[in-house]
Amino acid sequence: MDTPVKREVVVPGDILDGDxxxxxxxxxxxxxxxxxxxxxxxxxxxxxxxxxxxxGRYIPRPGDAVIGKVVDVxxxxxxxxxxxxxxxxxxxNEVPWRVDFGDTARYMDIEDTILAKVLDVDExxxxxxxxxxxxxRKLTDGQIVEISHAKVPRVIGKKGSMIDLIETYTKCxxxxxxxxxxxxxxxxxxxxxxxAAVRMIEEQAQVMGLTEAVRSYLEGIYGKKE
Amino acid sequence: xxxxxxxxxxxxLRMDGRKPDELRPIKIEAGVLKRADGSAYxxxxxxxxxxxxxxxxxCHPRHMQNPAKAIVRCRYNMVSFSVDDxxxxxxxxxxxxxxxxxxxxxxxxxxxxxxxRTSIDVFIEILQADAGTRCAGITAASVxxxxxxxxxxxxxxxxxxxxxxxxxxxxxxxxxxxxxxxxVPLAIIPRxxxxxxxxxxxxxxxxxxxxxxxxxxxxxxxxxxxxxxALKRRYAVILEEEETTEGDA
Lengths: 226, 249
Fold this sequence. Notes:
heterodimer, A: alpha+beta, CATH 2.40.50.100, CATH 2.40.50.140, Ribosomal Protein S8, Chain: A, domain 1, six-stranded antiparallel beta sheet, four-stranded mixed beta sheet, 19% helix, flat, B: alpha+beta, Ribosomal Protein S5, domain 2, five-stranded antiparallel beta sheet, 4 helices
């Protein structure tokens, strides 16, 4: 874990030089100096200086678990919206079912929501999805909450501490996808509380001791737990 | 004949009491619109500008997509109540031109290669106009671009200079623009002093232009500081309380 240092907000064009640092994510170098290219927080890690973005759109990366909405159905693929600038096709040979040509709509139709993995993103940012793994499936129950993808790490928490906390209190099943969509399933009342907790994290994403704040919020509703 | 307007008095001060190289007061606020990916509101003297940025998003119409990089589209618009006489709404020759040059100014700073086939849409709405709106619009929109989390080489800062009653002045207001001899809007990348927009209405000698450019660039750097402050202020409240390390992804 990196040492907690003073967090500094940087804007595009800010100089980020330091002893032997190399330009990392969210930076660029010009004439021997390193500059920020994003609005974000300066971060130094293993010899690289990075800028952790405070916003921006989700850009798919291979291996990301994502929640997508089917927006179009072709005879051998589904077109999925990932809340990113790029539409992502899911081909029939990447689903766990045997689908005959032209029979795609019988399995998934427009407006269906799926949990999938980003299979590949090529250099022109053409995305392809896969559902051929353990976690991927069609989401039939529950509801989806959308947050900024930059806040996903906060909702998950250190080693999943935040998400575990919400799950144990509300007894909801949850899944936080990398594209900022969160799937929540449980009793109606519990879901409302879980959504409120997520919204709380979203609003106070940068606040210290957020896990404790969420814990006391949930304790206020459900009473103390072990 | 009506007596000629005295734009610069005997003490060398302008009609609103400014010195020749003094800017009008500028106020910027970032992140004012909830629906846009990034936004900024700016007050520059009597100018009031709202800027919103969307994207990078899928580019429509498809034939405008560039397979190598994101395209930057810009729309500059004056609302009907922004000027004394009602402005007839809709794009006209002037706003089409400003949209084009402003969009080109932004393309030169945005790292579009990171988002091929997408578009970044910039909307500049002039709510109240008092000369220098294209500079005000560019200044606001560049804050909105940064607020949208779009990677950029630097912010773009813009300011106008011109000639009024034979004197070189900075940041002309409406009267000076209407009755002055020249108005030169200028936009630069403050870090490198590269010029990304330079237009001229009226006429200047080479020497006057060079002198004006010098003061203009200095003014842009002042504006750059205001832009940076506006962006940092948006997250300042959060920063005070923060010390913990981030959770893993």
